[in-house]
Inverse folding.
């Protein structure tokens, strides 16, 4: 059994035979369901270099010994920021395996920077753990190549999709992404953290209709996959 817990914003905790954190922005996150020191992790996946996605990755990795997996350039940046005190796995778009977990890094249409300098490229991750397939889109707009993710690596058991607009897809675009991805379940994320990304997840659910089961999670809630 694999559990997927929403921690707020774009942060998720996947727990099965391994404990995996994705985009652990907790400190300074008004939605955060937990504190960084309350989490254990084996792997931490970072979709891009913005602060609301790298978040507390370094702090958590130092404490737990978790490996941080990210785009090659971002992994090097994180290693420098951590003064070499964390183990990073730098990769690029494509499949790999880290400690028995299948990880496919896929494109995302978004910027990636420290706020001043561009760092690597934005990505999403498809995680294969204990026979389940979970897609975290990162920050992105919808694009037709999403159909390949399901074709190559599906069926996707659950897709975690941003719906906030302004920086990412809004509900309409995310509903189109559901058509392309064909997931069994979908969880909206990256909305209502701040006013520019205020959205009604029920509108997203209405737009998706019967194309997938939409599960609206509050921070701290989880689903079994």
């Amino acid at each position: 059994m694999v559990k997927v817990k929403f921690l707020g914003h774009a942060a998720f905790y996947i727990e099965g035979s391994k404990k995996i954190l994705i985009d652990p922005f907790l400190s300074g996150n008004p939605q955060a369901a937990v504190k960084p020191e309350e989490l254990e992790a084996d792997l931490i996946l970072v979709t891009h270099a913005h602060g609301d996605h790298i978040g507390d990755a370094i702090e958590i990795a130092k404490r737990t010994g978790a490996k941080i997996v990210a785009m090659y350039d971002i992994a090097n940046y994180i290693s420098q920021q951590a003064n070499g005190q964390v183990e990073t796995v730098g990769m690029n778009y494509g499949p790999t395996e880290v400690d028995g977990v299948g990880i496919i890094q896929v494109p995302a249409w978004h910027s990636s920077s420290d706020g001043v300098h561009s760092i690597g490229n934005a990505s999403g991750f498809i995680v294969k753990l204990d026979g389940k397939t979970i897609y975290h889109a990162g920050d992105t707009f919808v694009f037709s190549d999403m159909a390949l993710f399901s074709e190559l690596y599906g069926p996707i058991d659950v897709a975690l999709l941003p719906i906030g607009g302004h920086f990412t897809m809004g509900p309409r675009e995310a509903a189109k992404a559901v058509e392309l991805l064909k997931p069994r379940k979908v969880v909206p994320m990256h909305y209502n953290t701040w006013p520019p990304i205020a959205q009604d997840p029920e509108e997203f659910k209405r737009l998706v209709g019967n194309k997938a089961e939409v599960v609206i999670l509050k921070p701290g809630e989880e689903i079994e996959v």
Summary: The first strand starts at residue 3 and ends at 8. Residues 171-181 form the longest helix (11 residues). The chain has six helices and 14 strands. The mean pLDDT is 97.
